[in-house]
Amino acid sequence: MSGMPPLFPTVLVGAALSPHTDALLHEAWRLTEKLGERLIVAHATTGNAEEARQELEGRVSRNLPFGAKAEVVVVESGRAAGVLTEIAAERKVDLILAGALAQERLITRLIGSVARRLAREAPCSVLLLPSEKDRALPFRIIVVSVDASDEAEAALAVATSLARRDPPEKLVAMWEYQVPGLAMALAGGSDAESRAQRDEVQHEEEAQLASLLRTADLTNLPVEAVCRYGEPGWVVSEYARTAGADLLVVPAPSGGGGIVDRLFAAGTDVVLRRLSYSVLLVRQAGLAAREG
């Protein structure tokens, strides 16, 4: 870590003993080497706990480098998200790593997948790795969602800290905005008036983004600032997809997740529905991010 303190000292990986588990273990170890100090591998089972432990320990042994150490925890429970959340709170975990469905069906959204529950309930930051990835990849292109909130400022701080420890080709600070009534106002004016009003709003939002970036330590980082109008969550997730991002960093949701939220998702829920890249949900509470 080049003398830098750990960004996420304790990393917890949720292992489902599926084909995707090997990729999760590879990623967990890579992240622990670069960003942390301690790795915990946990599994919730409704079957034979001892058999599950033996299989999990075997996978850890095969997928981690020789001499690497990880604590293995197996709990008899059918609530995977609940188990991970409890372990994270008890062990003061800084980052949970878990797999996620690349495209969630309606019924999955209604009952809530493990990844979505972790995103809302975990006491720490959560890194979701799409299930289609068969191996861990370096984060070549990182996109971070920012706005004027303290939560977004924390997400930017984590993204820049990550970029210093594992340098990407590009770090994109993405500011998305909506202005109530703007679309109706543009529709009611002349073409020239509409363009002028749209340009004025765009310039104001770009100025806010520039102001935010001036307060961050971006020295020697390949930062690109992007400001777009559109639905929160949708704009940044679509940009990340088309830009070929490997990692999208966003503030963790504060809670909720009722049936209406899941059917008519906004913000972070949109990101999770369209997952085709790793997503880091940054939670301020207990955040261990700090620069040396």
The proportion of residues forming helix, as a percent range, comes to 40-55%
The tally of helices reads 11
Q: Give the CA-based shape.
A: elongated
Query: Can you tell me the CATH topology of the largest domain?
Result: Rossmann fold
**What is the alpha-carbon Rg in Å?**
20 Å
Q: Major sheet, described briefly?
A: 10 strands, mixed
End-to-end separation: 10 Å
Question: pLDDT under 50 segments (min length 5)?
Answer: 102-112, 257-266, 288-292
Provide the number of structural domains.
2
Helix and strand succession?
EHEHEHEHHEEHEHHEHEHHE
Concise account of the structure shown:
The protein is built from eleven helices and ten strands. The protein has 292 residues and is of the alpha/beta class.
What does this structure look like?
The protein is α/β, with parallel strands linked by helices. It folds into two domains: 136 residues, HUPs (Rossmann fold), CATH 3.40.50; 138 residues, Rossmann fold. Helix content is 42%, strand content 21%. It is built from eleven helices and ten strands. The protein has a ten-stranded mixed β-sheet with strand order 3-2-1-4-5-10-9-6-7-8, sandwiched between helices. Helix 1 links the parallel strand 1 and strand 2. Helix 7 runs antiparallel to helix 8. The termini are close together.
